[in-house]
Amino acid sequence: PGGHGGSAGRGPAGRPGRARRIARAWADTLDVPVADIAEEDNFFDLGGNSLAAMRVVAALRPLVTLRQLMTHSDLGPLARAVDAAATPAAAGTGTGIAAPLLQPLSPPGVAADRVLVCFPYAAGNPLAFRPLAEALAARGVAVFAVALPGHDPGRPEPLADLDEVAGRVVVELRAAAGGEVLLWGHCVGAALAVEVTRLLAAAGSPPARLFLGGKLLRDAADIDASIAEVRALDEAGVVDWLVGQTGFTDLDGLDAGHTSALVAAFRHDALGSHTYLRDRLDPLADRPLTVPVTVVLAADDPLTAEAGDAPAAWRRIAADVTLAEIDGGGHYFCRTRAGEVADLVAGAGPAMPRDSRPGEDHV
Questions:
Q1: Which residues sit opposite 144 in a β-bridge?
Q2: What does the alpha-carbon distance between residue 172 and residue 9 come to, in Å, rounded to a whole number?
Q3: Does CATH place domain 102-346 in 3.40.50.1820?
Q4: Residue 246's closest CA among 186, 193, 322, 327?
Q5: Given a cut of 70, is residue 362 above it in pLDDT?
Q6: What is the DSSP code string of 269-331?
Q7: What integer is the mean pLDDT of 150-169?
Q8: What angle (nearest 5°) sits at the alpha carbon of residue 50, between those of residues 170 and 262?
Q9: Mean pLDDT over residues 197-215, rounded?
Q10: What are the beta bridge partners of residue 295?
Q11: Average pLDDT in the 346-360 region?
Q12: CATH no. for 4-91
């Protein structure tokens, strides 16, 4: 939207200092004239995406966090939220209580009778699932994503172990209002989604379905090899692997410090996921999940190109596993093919129909 900047009280000259800084960062990142950004303009409507959001938060650090930008994506409300957080009264209310992990992503006013909770890929953040939340808004499904500790460039904090995060997510989910819950774990996030599924089921409130996107279950020897590979890669090697093998773009435009932090988060997430799946293969095989599982793969995802019988592998730890295939979208198809993924999620009941063709597990 252009031309807003001339309205009384809205232009750059009439804004408080923090609002001017935020507007300037938006303008620089989105290549939009700062005078054309009004207080009611939305960062994502102006062309912002997950990569742009990371750049803005990195540029404004420590003024704005990723959580604040996701929660208040209009300029005016974001500036007021930042102002409120910076007041002496707010600064004096620190209790040491951790911020909630579940980040709401659906547009305001969505009427939903089901909830999808998404667990991001290595070094990922909730913004990866924002296109999916928009696509599901009209389908009666609200979307939340897990904001992993230590993954917000505007909020320095320690990384957290998988078991700790899973426990916190379960507490938050059980404290929320009732309704059907679906889980989506993407790539490395699959391990965390599996553990949350296990904990919810043990507590008597299992999710209706677990989606595992872009992830194959390997045997213990292959997982050990993956662990060794991650440990052997230096920072440049991790960056090369992310860009070359997965098409990861969230590193673009970040300075060296933020790149190092993102690489550390990737290494932490990947090792935590691999270790969990290796160590839990036998215990989960002894007591497999009874929640229906759908493995979702993209036809052009290089990380799952040698999928083989993917459902059979996951049936080592889950009793009811089916396969759904997306015809493209790369490794991050949860955001590049959000409409197709939304159709899949919205059509999921407690027991999705299997393909009737002999010998195939496609849905």
A1: 104, 117
A2: 40
A3: yes
A4: 186
A5: no
A6: HHHHHHHHHHHHHHHHHHS-B-S-EEEEEETT-GGGTT-SSHHHHHTTTBSSEEEEEES---T
A7: 93
A8: 75
A9: 97
A10: 212, 323
A11: 48
A12: 1.10.1200.10
CB atoms inside a 10 Å sphere around CB 138: 12
**Distance of alpha carbon 187 from alpha carbon 274, whole angstroms:** 11
pLDDT-derived band at 256, boundaries 50, 70, 90: confident
Q: For the chain, how are helix, strand and coil distributed in percent, rounded to 5?
A: 50, 10, 40
What residue type is assigned to position 109 of the chain? G
Write out the two tokens for 119: 């667990």
CA distance 62 to 39: 21
Q: Which of 338, 332, 355 is nearest to 213 (CA)?
A: 332
Tell me 107's DSSP state: P
CA dist., res. 210 & res. 289, Å (int): 10
Q: How many CB atoms lie within 10 A of CB 207?
A: 23
* Edge-to-edge order in the sheet of strand 180-186: 102-104, 141-146, 114-119, 180-186, 209-213, 293-298, 321-326
Q: Which two tokens stand for residue 201?
A: 């089921």
Structure tokens at 193: 């989604």
Q: How confident is the model at residue 254 (pLDDT cuts 50, 70, 90)?
A: low
Residue 217 near residue 277, CB atoms below 8 Å: yes
Q: Could you tell me which of 331, 272, 338, 268 has the C-alpha nearest to residue 127?
A: 338
Instruction: Give the pair of three-digit tokens for residue 190.
Output: 């699959």
pLDDT value of position 97: 53
Q: Where are the domains of the chain?
A: 4-91, 102-346
Q: If you ran DSSP here, which 8-state letter would residue 254 be given? A: -
The Cα–Cα gap between 155 and 79 comes to: 17
What are the structure tokens assigned to 274, written together? 């691999």
Whose CA is closest to 66, among 109, 120, 111?
A: 120
Alpha-carbon distance of 333 to 11, in angstroms, equals: 39
141: helix, strand or coil = strand
Say how far apart CA 286 and CA 223 lie, in whole Å: 19
Peptide bond just before 100 cis, omega within 30 deg: no
Q: Which residues contact 240 (CB under 8 A, 6 or more apart)?
A: none
Place of tokens 């499904």: 141
Let me know if the fold of 4-91 is the same as that of 102-346: no
